Amino acid sequence: MPEKRYLLTPGPTPVPPEVLAAVGAPVIHHRSPDFRRIYGDCLERLGTVCRTDSDVLLFTASGTGAVESAVANLCSPGDRLLVVSAGYFGERWIELGRAYGCDVAELRYEWGASPSPDDLAERLDELGGAPVVLLTHSETSTGVVADVQSLAAVAKEAGSLVIVDAVSSLGAVPLQTDAWGIDVVVSGSQKALMTPPGLGFASVSSAAWERQGTATMPRFYFDWARTRDAQAKLDSAFTLAVSLVAGLNVALELLLEEGLEAAFERHVALGRACREGVKAMGLELFSPDEDRSAVVTAVHSPEGVDAAEVILALRDRFGIQIIGGQGALKGKIFRIGHIGWFNIFDITTALAGLELVLAEAGAEIERGFAVTRALETYEGARV
Amino acid sequence: MPEKRYLLTPGPTPVPPEVLAAVGAPVIHHRSPDFRRIYGDCLERLGTVCRTDSDVLLFTASGTGAVESAVANLCSPGDRLLVVSAGYFGERWIELGRAYGCDVAELRYEWGASPSPDDLAERLDELGGAPVVLLTHSETSTGVVADVQSLAAVAKEAGSLVIVDAVSSLGAVPLQTDAWGIDVVVSGSQKALMTPPGLGFASVSSAAWERQGTATMPRFYFDWARTRDAQAKLDSAFTLAVSLVAGLNVALELLLEEGLEAAFERHVALGRACREGVKAMGLELFSPDEDRSAVVTAVHSPEGVDAAEVILALRDRFGIQIIGGQGALKGKIFRIGHIGWFNIFDITTALAGLELVLAEAGAEIERGFAVTRALETYEGARV
With left for phi above 0 and alpha for psi between -120 and 50, is residue B326 left, alpha or beta? Predict the structure, then answer.
């Protein structure tokens, strides 16, 4: 019998069959009327999901490419860029800013911390302001979802433009681009948007467009103006990954049919269920035990058990793919993703498999409670 | 009955069902052992198709992104970059070099000309050399396939590093990266490689790596060293478009099963058949009537007939998608692509539809000869 596979990582995430069918459909030309219809719908739906009236620019690239577009379009060499970092992706944005020759200032936390608006205000004050601030909404490496509404408010107050990396949060947890005054929201196709990886996008406010006009970093493929001008004619500056756009369009339709609020509630319930199940096993959470952090549940590997071996055993025995820690957390934590096309039985499958594998690895855990606790928590949260 | 569609453009091109099945298969994690196997095979096959022992670096991007990677990794601001241009894509590379702040020198031809090695030698002499020369192998806008072997030899003789844009040529017409001393061959997934758009790649010689180490253009997403280091561990610097990589791997397997030489011969025969069919209708070729130019057949629209209307009619009446001219050639020519998964009946379908549509538009053409002539030419060429 073919093995059943369970993709339970925080990206790429499982893709619904309707989306896979669109992705695997015969290719159509990127400048044909058929494609323009799909493309127009997709761009409009992206705006709805981002809760913005601004242009959302679409790139064939990973989320990192789209973040790079923000730095390349908003900064000139030597410009100060303040990056708030509390994990692997925050560190990546610091590195990216440096690679571009920005004067990168940091507000750096231990991995797993939740950035504080007061600290940001203080840091901006200390620096005498920063033209651009880069925030990470969901720090996928730790499971922390930051309070970007408050953080963005502080940065706007200090006169900064705000870029938010919403790669693993968009569509899973609330994010209101326009209402919260966020200038640039960057995301990707392969997380809560239930599409294979390969598309990144960036919403751009009018203030960001103003700065773009004078920013002198070299850029061509990721040049916003080139992309905006093409999109205005439902054209693309460069050949788009049409198959992925067709898939994304279907996925966005599915998401909007469920409704954004309903999707956010589902993610909260899934996150709560996963954390309660993990705790019922007697394991210690690395993720914050709070409803906002509904993207990924990070768990300390029990004493004497290497997280990498747990992950390997889950995959080899049961076809269950979860993922380990990044950087300094390698081997120390494992992470269960639950963004996008997930229901409670994905969580109970992960917990059931995990329980068995940990027991066999000799971990001292409570057995027989996790699945029931998760299911009850989920049902309770959904009432 | 669902309409049958015929994608007869020089990219994106038709994708075989085996490849579509891989593209539309459930997503697997980009750091899982399952994906690493696919990824390793794919990278190795790319090297075989490029005929190089050097690293071939894979990016989630269009071909333009991969060309940009070459400029960003080989140049520092103010470096001289000599671009040989005889069409739309040559012009794009001039613009790209300027966007990056290179000191762009040009060897510019009328669109449709075939660049001459003697001119290149003279231009390099005039300039006192150029550290980097950028050539276009197949100028998709005009149908000309340049003699890059001779052009590259001249540039190497003058001490330049040579980048070749082989986006629409790789896998369709002969290209020997190592034997011809080409430092960087850039291509994409959506042409002769029979895969949907979204993947670009670049092969990098040891001389190019040497220059890369000192080139100071800002780069992160397209940084070659970052990608090479990840690929060495069958990892990727950023989340790859795993679905497209899975498809490309199948497509490369199909191409290598046919054999590169057999594929080149098939393309020569298809190109010859298409040109003979077009001429049998009494139309005038814009493409060169030579076997090397086997990627796309460009045709002057007959007196008084707007190419755009011909293209629209073919699509609306018959589901046949061909494409018009770019830039100054808009409305004046139409182009029939025949790279990748094409056989003679794709050509005869295009010719049959075209004949009818042109006759209805009032063009004075010969009717009843094109299909037979094309088929006979193809069979003759294949004996």
Answer: beta
Distance CA A301, CA B302 (A): 73
Residue B382 has pLDDT above 80, yes or no: no
Q: Which residues of B touch A215 (CB under 8 A)?
A: none
Question: What is the C-alpha separation between B337 and B267, in angstroms, rounded?
Answer: 11
By the 8 A CB rule, do A274 and A348 touch?
no
CATH number of A17-257: 3.40.640.10
Count residue pairs from A and B with Cβ separation < 8 A.
Answer: 189
* Cβ atoms within 10 Å, residue B304: 9
Question: Which residue is closest to B188 within chain A, CA to CA?
Answer: A239
Number of Cβ within 10 Å of residue A95's Cβ equals: 14
- CA B349 from centre of chain: 23
Predicted confidence at residue B364, as pLDDT, reads 95
Domain A259-382 architecture: Alpha-Beta Complex (3.90)
The full set of domain ranges for chain B reads 17-257, 259-382
Tell me the chain B residues in contact with residue A64 when contact means C-beta distances shorter than 8 Å. 220-221, 238-239
pTM of the model: 0.98
| ipTM exceeding 0.90, yes/no | yes
State pLDDT tens for residues B83-113: 999 999 999 999 999 999 999 999 999 999 9
Phi–psi pair at B334, nearest 5 degrees? -125, 155
Q: Residues B40-58: pLDDT tens digits?
A: 999 999 999 999 999 999 9
Q: How far apart are CA A152 and CA A182, in angstroms?
A: 7
CA gap A131, B101 in Å, rounded: 24
Which residue from A238, A202, A198 is spatially nearest to A72, judged by alpha carbons?
A202
